Amino acid sequence: MVGECSIGSCKKSAYERGLCSKHWQAARAGSVKEYAERGSLPEFLEAAVKSQVDECVVWPFAKRKYSYGLPINAFGSKRPHVIVCEAVNGPAPEGKEAAHRCGNESCVNPRHLRWATHKENGEDRVEHTRAQRLKLEIENQRAIRRRGTPDNVLERAAIQSLIDRGDY
């Protein structure tokens, strides 16, 4: 806890991201009207909409762990990636939802957001998960190779399994 809460006249000790416990919980619950009045949330959204970078722009405010930003009441209870997608691509067409090209649910980079059907969005999610698993599997294989010849039976069995599959 460092300093005071940054919301208006609140004099409580700061707990997280410049907010006292009460205001932090309100921000995490999506009730961010007071949080938005600080100016940083709307400024961040505006900067995200104008972003010209290729890498992910990760939502820094209240969100589920490793996931989407929480709905923002001040913007009609929409999630941040939907707000940015609407700002760049216009309102969602009938039967479409905001989808991430990058697979990062916390990303609000407009270059990574598009309108897609629920089915297309689900297929993207599956493909991103597959790609992530493949990346981890390749990294594990490389780690096994770096260690050299295994001394224990379980490692030898794991390597033999990879060899049998043609992945070693």
Give an overview in words.
With 168 residues, this protein is mainly alpha-helical. The chain has three domains: 1-38, no CATH class; 39-116, no CATH class; 123-165, no CATH class. It is 45% helix and 5% strand. The chain has six helices and two strands, in the order ααααββαα. It has helices at 21-28, 33-37, 40-49, 80-89, 118-147, 153-165; strands at residues 97-100, 113-116. A two-stranded antiparallel sheet has the order 1-2. Helix 3 crosses helix 4. The radius of gyration is 22 Å and the shape is flat. The model is unreliable at 30-39 (pLDDT under 50).
Rounded average pLDDT: 77
Number of beta-strand segments: 2
Structural class: mainly alpha
Order of the strands making up the biggest sheet: 1-2
Q: What is the subunit organization of this protein?
A: single chain
Radius of gyration: 22 Å
Order of helices and strands: HHHHEEHH
Biggest pleated-sheet summary: 2 strands, antiparallel
State the end-to-end distance: 50 Å
**How many H/I helical runs?**
6
* Shape by Cα distribution: flat
Total number of distinct structural domains: 3
Helix content: 40-55%
Percentage beta strand: under 5%
Low-confidence stretches: 30-39
